Amino acid sequence: MSDADIQIVSNEAGEPTAVIVPIALWREIASERETAYLLKSETMRQRLMAALERQTGVPLDDAVAKLGL
Length: 69
Known about the structure:
Blueprint: E1 7-10, E2 16-20, H1 23-39, H2 42-53, H3 60-67
Antiparallel strand pairs: 1-2
């Protein structure tokens, strides 16, 4: 993605007031903001790190059956 994909909106005085970005970039920014927010909490940081280290999981079909959905 290049800087050409980003558009700056200015007011009548030529002052920048907004930015238009491609949706893929916006989703990346939003994801990074959410991660930063979650990492502020030490408890959540520990949970996220533990989840990253886990090597096992439960198949979706088994989870659905266990929950009775």
